[in-house]
Known about the structure:
The chain is of the alpha/beta class and 447 residues long.
Amino acid sequence: MQSRLHSTATALHAGAATSDITPQDRVFLYGYPHVPRLSTGVHDRLESAALYLRQEGQAVLFIANDLIFVSRQLSGDVRRRISIKTGVPAEAIAITATHTHSGPVTVDGLSHHADPVVPKADPSYLQWVADSMVEAGCAAIRSAQPAEAGLVVAQAEGVGTNRHDPAGPADRSVPVLVVRALADQRPIACMLAYAMHTTVLHEDSTLISGDFPHFTRQYLRRHGLVPEHCPVLYHNGASGNQSPRHVTKANTFAEAQRLGELLGAAVADAMRRIAFHRSCPLRVRRAHVPLQLRVLPAVAQAEAQAKAALEKFRSLRTAQAPRTAVRTAECDWFGAEETVALAQAALDGRLQAAANQCSPAEIQVFELGTWKFVFWPGEFFVEYALEVKGLSPNTFVITMANGELQGYIVTPEAVARGTYEATNAVFGADNGRRVVAATLGLLAAQD
């Protein structure tokens, strides 16, 4: 039976591997402005985790990374190199970032150009990270063996909410894909996606960390849902306006552990009812959507708005307003400052040059049996993912994929309210509907 299974060309094969991408030296921890936040140690190792699937001549490869962003240039280089080494088409490879705010600088953000404390990304670290991703991807492919796959959807409660309105739009569903060896049913890898900003830890934390997803992985391993060194790929869903802000008691590792274990428990409960299948037909489709720049105010107007935002933040802080209200006002001030930087960049061509590095946006649709995974670059508001999911059953949206967009893709309502994300955007809100339309077209296409 063993030899017959291994000789079946049409059988599902799967392989997985990880690489350590923890910086070896002291680094600036990226994610919050104005604070010279240099690492003082490592709380938990950053991982690059890869999962490879192949059936009936079609192969796909997913690589998830404990980084705040993966640029379009870096992901393109990694995909090209893996394709050359293994023959897996670059368009069948998806590379994502978990969006931890307790890791190194990996992109040079235009909106942070004027912030004197934020350094540029270290080219030597980026090269090492790219090499590590290639290593993980190729190792996953080499390790492929006959397998079976199962997917179940967990429901995460208490891990976070809509950033602006705790009762507002959110997506608490967590797709959980598990592949296990056909020979002994030992898990090969687990892959999950959740729409939540990875921001339990704030600017006062100086230890390198993957934030709460690290504790989710540890929970699954500690409770025997996956072996100790089994790769657990964590992807970020459409989390542009999703945050732990309204559920955390403090911005500490204890809270990151509490939330990570809440998510882990929800995933573990779902995994106990998972059904496995020996056949998982694979299909990949993709499209490219040109993005349109946001209409920016004049520099003087932007500066006036930034001054007003700072005054509001200071007033709330002085009045000892609730912690969440003060933090929201502080972020609104950050966004207003970033609008000033973007307005200035629009005058000398830097804005258009940065946009050219991000556009067109690549959209991927991976069909795994009856399940569909959509990959978008950048940070999208959850409403766009909910629209896709509402019109396409068994579909899950993953963001931060194959590049970033120098900011958010927000809704028109967020623009009208002047939220932090809207004032920190390079591209206009109308791009969200265009990406949704292109995605639905791919999902509906017939071969």
